[in-house]
Q: What sequence folds into this?
């Protein structure tokens, strides 16, 4: 998949395209329904499939005080888009100046002149252009004027209460609630946080449970505080390496039993492994299930008893 940093990098001989646009934060099931339609139509017609996305998130530029934290970092987002079979992704730097484009100017610059789109595929709630004033009706009118077809993809997820649209907002809510089952359902994969392993207080090693502490600037939305069962993956290793993907008990939070941890951390204890040296390595931590909330223990003995229970619960869940 080609990764272009602006419309100027798109080759002039790319030819007609089937294209879409969106932030695609998390690349969840709703996003993938739209993107899969792009790929399918492009293959049926022998055209190139292209997604247009933005970095940073438009809200972070226009209203930083209410900007959502990214569910997935840009590189992870691009990797997920590549897995869907797209031929290319254009990452547009979103600025206040760029936000002043009218809906028609945006469409002409992006889909008419930039990508020479034969088809534009959109989610049913897509907005674009100055003050998000462009919508599906606008796009259809512009398609008629400039000669491209518009396909609208509506996606819903089946849930017990009825139906709802898969959305990044619903995903953020699930992670904030520690509802990993719902987050996994929306994503159709485990949610992950990635970052460099850094030195912490080394307290886990002293207690017999050495942990890999992720750097504070890790990528990915960190779920609510608590203890989780999940996986630690080492992308630097070959896919078939026995230590590539390892079962782990994961702690998120400030560790309330001790008073010297002021910043939320993500740390993972790989089950039954005290021999790993992961410092300086970038790892992925995937969340499978929340086991419990954080507790302030009255003694180290009680803490150790609970950690042992958490480890066995993780083992039963992941290695059954």
A:
């Amino acid at each position: 998949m080609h990764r272009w940093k602006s419309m100027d990098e798109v080759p002039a001989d790319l030819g007609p395209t089937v294209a879409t646009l969106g932030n695609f934060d998390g690349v969840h099931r709703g996003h993938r329904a739209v993107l899969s339609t792009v790929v399918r139509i492009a293959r049926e017609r022998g055209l190139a499939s292209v997604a247009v996305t933005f970095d940073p998130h438009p809200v972070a530029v226009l209203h930083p005080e209410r900007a959502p934290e990214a569910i997935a970092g840009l590189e992870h987002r691009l990797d997920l888009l590549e897995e869907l079979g797209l031929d290319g992704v254009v990452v547009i730097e979103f600025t206040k100046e760029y936000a002043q484009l009218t809906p028609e100017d945006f469409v002409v610059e992006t889909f008419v002149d930039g990508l020479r789109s034969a088809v534009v595929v959109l989610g049913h709630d897509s907005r674009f252009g100055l003050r998000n004033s462009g919508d599906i009706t606008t796009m259809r009118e512009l398609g008629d004027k400039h000669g491209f077809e518009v396909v609208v993809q509506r996606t819903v997820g089946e849930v017990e209460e009825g139906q709802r649209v898969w959305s990044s907002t619903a995903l953020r809510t699930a992670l904030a609630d520690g509802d990993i089952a719902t987050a996994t359902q929306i994503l159709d994969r485990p949610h992950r946080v990635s970052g460099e392993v850094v030195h912490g207080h080394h307290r886990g090693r002293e207690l017999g449970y050495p942990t890999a502490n992720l750097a504070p600037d890790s990528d990915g939305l960190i779920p609510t505080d608590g203890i989780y069962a999940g996986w630690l993956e080492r992308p630097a290793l070959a896919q078939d390496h026995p230590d590539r993907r390892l079962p782990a008990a994961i702690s998120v939070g400030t560790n309330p039993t001790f008073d010297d941890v002021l910043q939320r951390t993500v740390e993972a204890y790989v089950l039954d492994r005290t021999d790993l040296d992961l410092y300086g390595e970038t790892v992925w931590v995937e969340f499978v299930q929340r086991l419990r909330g954080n507790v302030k223990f009255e003694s180290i003995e009680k803490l150790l008893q609970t950690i042992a229970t958490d480890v066995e619960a993780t083992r039963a869940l992941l290695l059954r």
Notes: The two ends are 37 Å apart (CA to CA). Residues 55 and 74 are 8 Å apart (CA to CA). DSSP finds nine helices and 14 strands in the chain. The first helix runs from residue 29 to 45.
